[in-house]
Amino acid sequence: MRRxxxxxxxxxxxxxxxxxxxQLFFVVRAYDDPxxxxxxxxxxxxxxxxxxxxxxxxxxxxxxxxxxxxYHWSQLVRGRGLTTPWVDGSAASGVESQLAFFQQALDWxxxxxxxxxxxxYFEAHVxxxxxxxxxxxxxxxxxxxxxxxx
Amino acid sequence: xxxxxxxxxxxxxVRAIALLRILVGxxxxxxxxxxxxxAQPGSYFAERFYVPFTELWPVLPLEGYRAVLLVGLVAAVxxxxxxxxxxxxxxxxxxxxxxLFSNQLFFHHNRAFLTTILFGLTLLPAGRALSVDxxxxxxxxxxxxxxxxxxRLVLLRALACTPYLASGFSKLIDPDWWSGVVMYDRIxxxxxxxxxxxxxxxxxxxxxxxxxxxxxxxxxxxxxxFVGVGYWFRRTRVTAMFMALGFHTLIEITSTxxxxxxxxxxATLIWVTPRTRDRVLWVRTDEARGxxxxxxxxxxxxxxxxxxxxxxxxxxxxxxxxxxxxxxGAPARRLVLSRLPPLMPLVTPLLLLDQxxxxxGQSPQSA
Lengths: 150, 367
Hints:
The complex is a heterodimer. Chain A is an alpha+beta fold. Chain A is 32% helix and 23% strand.
């Protein structure tokens, strides 16, 4: 075989192996990834979740359900079952996936609400039920907010 | 018997992939359109909580984002038509990937699958048949050869069977899935939705039991695994295709999976034997039945399975199959109709009637 076709064939073989290797990598990695990205594990759970979100200020804890400082959670966070966390919702992609996104949402809200001059951080009391199992509760916190000098 | 060569030396017809290209166009349009509809002032994803895959990924202003989606939509239309196929396939893939990677909240497995199939369409010269490109080239006197290196098709096949194998295996080793708890729980919680849609209680009651779900979803998991493996073998390929059709229909009825079902059904084309005109069909065109069949084959033989030859002697219909087997009469008609894509799901089961030993012989011309 001449050099040109041989190199082309080798290139094709390398490309083939690289793509298959990458796909296999994602499939294996999905077992350690809350979102199973590119690992094809749809509908992995029938779990449910619910969270009560509180603003923690110097004066105490306040439910954010009805809004605060002109903000409403449901306008800031939409989709993936995160819009109304205080209502029982599905975590069909898995509890880990749901809570990973929820943690990121808490942090995002904490850092994207500049008109809020009193919240030190957000605290969420989360209840999950994994595939008809026993309910589990946990407390999650957003990043600490920097409040303006008074 | 044809000699088997390594996939890196073999050539494959892309005729079936061209048909896949045509079907994936509208599927991509439906996919991108939903994002375009959602991208309105005040509801643009980048104005609210979103999760970029990487901070380096550019976030466009709303108008720029809408323009990119429109480019993707136009590219998908042109890709489907087969105009500048390679360029428009790449452009369609680029827009779908750009959008997918803009926000992790957009990620769903059906979108990953769409990306995979579009990647395959950029890899294979899917515009060399059933396309404006092919028509233009023919008009110019330089008809395109609808062929590509076999390894590219094998690569697409490997990627296309991954969702079935990965999903099936993950559920096989998950005790909650294998025991049916996951689906029993889901069906129990959403039975009121089915009731509200008018599904009668006598139908829901047996389905919403642990016993039913313990058996049903084991079968579904095994179906996924069978499809992923069965596609690879000639003897099980047609069965795998039928099981995939049933699987995707069931998924479409019971779940919200966006374009996944349509894509999964369209992707069965990837597994069509990549050879064209390797069956010879003789039809008596001096008989009305023969003429009708010839017209039907010309209209519906989208995958170019048959080398159609008109004749005025011998039986009304005669087929020489790939292995040299000669079929006549009803078995020949059934084989022909079963290889016409729109009729395939209806007629293929009838081939079971022809499973007993076939009569072999020679073509009418040589007989």
